[in-house]
Amino acid sequence: MTPSPSPSLTDLLHAAVTAVGGAERPGQVSMAQAVAEAIGATRFIDQDDGGGETKGEHAHLLVQAGTGTGKSLGYLVPAIAHGERVVIATATLALQRQLVERDLPRTVDALHPLLRRRPEFAMLKGRSNYLCLHRLHEGVPHEEEDGLFDPFEAAAPLPGQASSKLGKDLLRLRDWADETETGDRDDMTPGVSDRAWGQVSVSSRECLGASKCTYGADCFAEAARERAKLSDVIVTNHALLAIDAIEGAPVLPGHEVLIIDEAHELVSRVTGAATGELTPGQVNRAVRRAAKLVNEKAADALQTAAESFERLMELALPGRLEEIPEDLGYALMALRDASRTVISAIGSTRDKSVQDEDAVRKQALASVENVHAVAERIVEGSEYDVVWYERHDRFGASLRVAPMSVSGLLREKLFTERSVVLTSATLKLGGDFNGVGASLGLAPEGMAEKAGANDPTMPRWKGLDVGSPFDYRKQGILYVAQHLAQPGREAGRADMLDELTELVQAAGGRTLGLFSSMRAAQTAAEELRGRLDTPILLQGEETLGELIRTFAADPQTCLFGTLSLWQGVDVPGPSCQLVVMDRIPFPRPDDPLMSARQKAVEEAGGNGFMAVAATHAALLMAQGAGRLVRASGDRGVVAVLDPRLAKARYGSFLRASMPDFWYTTDRNQARRSLAAIDAAAKASE
Fold it and tell me: Does residue 151 sit within a domain?
């Protein structure tokens, strides 16, 4: 009997798109074909001769897929058809939920009749995202003798009294624990504060381990890991992917294919995971936790080292430490040596008088090991690390250490032994993939083959821009206010505020204001509230989700804010017809990590400004401009109130990174267009 031929990629994609109620787009088809080639699923690509069984070379792929392309199905269909285990890493909770709750169930159902198998899928996050039953029932291990109380009993209100916000959250968590099947924090609606969640969750270092924990058999985190091991498609986040790569101990099950969505975020997420921090609060917490488990001599040495460190941190001024000051070096060596002694002591002692001693021990070890690791990393020093002080009004000073670059780490850990597809709406900066590629440890496009021939460890890759179904030149205008004065360091530029007022008036509200700092957003909101009747929402005055819902519901409303709005707002339709950027979002000149990276590029003979500052700004501007057109019927203006975008030499690089809107510097043209768009929107409301 002749076996049935394998379904074509065209058939599979058509079935999946139909299942989600969409329509196939040329960019989506091109993306699916390229993904299939990259991951070795070429037997599913239509061939002139009816299809072949050739196998792909497992090269890596960067795909820029504009808003509206349908990129999720563009990678899901060939990945599922491939038949090997796939890990999909995303940056945002919204996309994780979309994949697990909508796209994957429908795609699996649609492909099942054609593939004659039903792939399993699961979501996996870091352990601290799951409720810990041990913490819930046994409480947080007590750090101080006078801290012996049950937080849940303390939360219960007395007759006639209202409980605190923390108390209410804790009682809700106890009730939710009896109902939830996943224990996943993100499944709890409405959510709870970080402080409350900290009472019922543990880090991987603090976890007792399923075999030692009374509640191990029912552990939510362990159940999630078991589901992942049995699944064909695992949806996770960039942070867990970074931990899996950095720590060497595998967190994710073995897999043949890795797909990274929202890939423009990856480098910053990996950098965050590779960053160490020491604060006086952390160190003092480690001292308290260890004190009851070790002898007095070891505890006193750690206490003395902690006091010396705290005195230095009281005087710390923010900024990079290109050399470690002598007094700080001595304090860190004392912390390192004392914490090493305590770690050894904790491992060799048992105290039956301490209630729930295993949990106390794990929590103490986690705290002291972190102090030891960061102190040792800074003391030993590395030309590839950047060390700096930060100071916060609320939390005081902290000492931080981060890698100068994560490109080498990513090249070594990410692109070996599996095929990798990276996709986003913004991967081409200045017209090519080389900037993003370099940050990932990839040789320049076109040189990857040659580099790979000379160095087998150099990944081979190609870039593909599948475009967007939107006609940006007809749907949007990029207006640069070149008549304004060049911005300085002040938050409230008078001419910029005048320009902003006139633009918002012409648009009839409908404005998303993207500001380079929270101070600038606050200044603009206060000023325009005094000038206009238009409601101005300001980030920080309500939860971000509630602000976006209000903004979307009332077209006459404006929403002003900073970084998370540049990348996190999806409001199609008449509520967002003007996107304003107050200035080019270069990193702050005093940003220790960015300035160190820029200096390193310059010392190597490169253009540090373009490689670091301009690339950082280009990525944000591409993301920010992408907030305007979210659907085929959207119309509007992106207004940049910084003349450097029109006048500076690097302006063309930044503009080439943004959607291809119709470009003008004519302020009257911008106002007329906004007024016409506003009139059309009101006529259809």
Answer: no
